[in-house]
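Sharing a chain and its predicted structure for anyone who wants a worked example. Both blocks are below, sequence first, tokens second.
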Amino acid sequence: MKYEVVIGIETHVQLATKSKLFCGCNNDSREAKPNAHVCPVCIALPGALPVLNKAAVELALKAGLALNAYSDMLEFHTKFDRKNYFYPDSPSGYQITQFDEPIIGNGFVEFPFEGETKRVGITRAHLEADAGKLTHPAGKDYSLVDLNRAGTPLLEIVSEPDMRSAAEAKAYAEELYHLMRYAGVSDCDLYYGNMRFDVNVSLRLAGQKEFGTRTESKNLNSFRAVAGVVEYEMKRQAEILDAGEKVVQETRGWDESKGETFSQRTKEEAHDYRYFPEPDLPPVQVTSDMLKVASNGMPEKMPMELRQELAGAGISGREVETLVANIEAAELWLQLNIENPEQAKFAFNWLVGDMLRLAEAKGKSLRESDVSSLTVAAVGEMVAAGKLSSTNSKALLAMLWENDEGAHHVAEREGLLQQSDAGELEAWTDQVIKDNPKPVADYQKGEAKALGFLVGQVMKLSKGQANPPMVNEILKDKLKK
């Protein structure tokens, strides 16, 4: 490669507090009408003063632990600053943020990448209040301002420029997503913008130490977009450099439908914002006791530790990542300790598929289900032994969700067990052959798919109780004659 790509990512994470960063307004405005959650503080009326949300500080400290920034557990001092700029959705004309003394200093994120453990440095992470939101009605000559989001507590996590490919940038963003969710810092709902990525991309000649001119593509809300921006900017900047021209440092947007970035504005520098200490907020002294409380609130296993444990539980790398993405499913899986491959396949597919869908439909978590790991193993055993069809296993587990009366007992009571009695199966297949002369003739002419139709008819006739593999063999045998 002629050029080497250099990537850094700034990530905005909306903290999972009940109220905003400097006032008591509701922090969750996802279903609210515009400007429903506002007050004199967050709309910056004269004389209204901010008061720091203690819960936001506590969540930021947990984020710092997840980012490996407090390994020595020392006390430290942090303060807030004003970042001055005008924009229509910022009613105060400035943003309360942190500049030279952020709540999180140097740290790092480790994650698996291409068979190795990759480490990306964290330069800093700071607390700040979000701006509002502008909407631009189609065909109109005006914009609308919604200040529900103004004052929302954000943690901006700034990485070192340590990434060298689109895939690596995507993997880093995914790991950061896991870390913030595991630590309980945020729900990181990408759809609602509770986690957003600003991706900085530059090119330099291979072997060159100096960085090239970077562009920043802002407000990306998917991992796919992170990778897409890097790939597009690599190509675009390479074409500019090959033509003997210079890359312009600027802020760019991302057009998902076209798969392209587009210019928005030239990039401001720090001195353009005229930072100065926030006069209405006192500095914060973070004590060792505060850090201990935050540490006690962290989960027993973070993603990398969980991966190591799952890797020894008989599943592949892709399956491990699927479970890491849902810690509740991972916890249940680790309790199963299944050695039979068929049982394990059933349990995995059910956990990451049917169980999660059922939980979502009920508006609950897996931890709220009455289904135990022993029940999952028992159902998997019945499926592996051919006593229970895959379809009926799902129905059984749904019945057990809120009242686990025992898998075998409920399956028998509800008539869900598969019938393997040869005589009963032959009676059903004879009836289906008699009622379906055309599919029978089609199969005997060589149309293999007709056999699947006939098996389906037997299953329908038996109300799902027939053993499909046995039905398949009986039909093949009978249709030879």
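Comments welcome. The CA atoms of residues 97 and 128 lie 4 Å apart.
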